[in-house]
Amino acid sequence: MRTVVVTDSTAYIPREMRESLNIYMIPLNVIFGEEAYQEEAELGAAEFYQEVKAKGLPTTSQPPIGQFVELYEQLARDYDAVISIHLSSGISGTYQGSVTAGGMVEGVTLYPFDSEISCMVQGFYVLEAAEMAQRGENPDAILARLEEMKQTVRAYFMVDDLTHLQRGGRLSSAQAIIGSLLQVKPLLHFEDKKIVPFEKIRTRKRAMNRIVELLGEAVSEGGQYRAVIIHANREEEAIEWKAELEEAFPHVEFMISYFGPVIGTHLGEGAMGMGWYRR
């Protein structure tokens, strides 16, 4: 069975990596006033943070159903199955859009997968699926592996300003107000597909140290781990953190990624996080 993998732009998988693994990408949209941009295709992370400084925060929108239908119809000419992996259905309608579009296309079987997360942690599922598809694994085996990964996937992040999440409806007003009053840097994570506070921590440094503790707890259970540091326009800080982590955890494979335009809109510049899974 010929199988291909599709994801959306919030996985933030570099173009060269997508091309080498034959991964297709559906972009979400970022809207500044009357101007709409397709994330990753027309607007990258560096340009986005510059635009925000000049124009303020944009709004975001999921891909139109027609864009999914068009891509799935194109893929139906060459493939029997499409595994479509998307950001958490608890914060976006993108996953449901893929499901709806799959029911409108003939000639190919769609296997939608809700990552229940986003960014390069979502990307971990995509890379695993694409590597398995290239080895000729069938869709059932790929989906079984993705569900297995879900048992060890973890991600924690902190933001400098909770009001972005509150404004976008991803965090309750009460939580944002309390956090702002106390000047806390709460650790956030995904629970039941939504972004919720994990722990309330006073400073940025302590929040990052707590993430390191959580990684250490996971690694102590044994096995090979892959981890990603994710930053919102804080590349130098991410590079320094990666060097420290590689020294502390020599058996963990670390990489650096970023909060791109769509997720950056909701987290704000300065956000920092890390995610991992057992290989």
Automatic annotation (TrEMBL):
InterPro entries: DegV (IPR003797), DegV_C (IPR043168), DegV_domain_contain (IPR050270)
Keyword presence, Zinc-finger: no
Origin: domain of life: Bacteria
Protein's recorded name: DegV family protein
UniProt key word Ubl conjugation: no
Keywords: Lipid-binding
Pfam families per UniProt: DegV
PROSITE patterns for the chain: DEGV
GO molecular function list: lipid binding
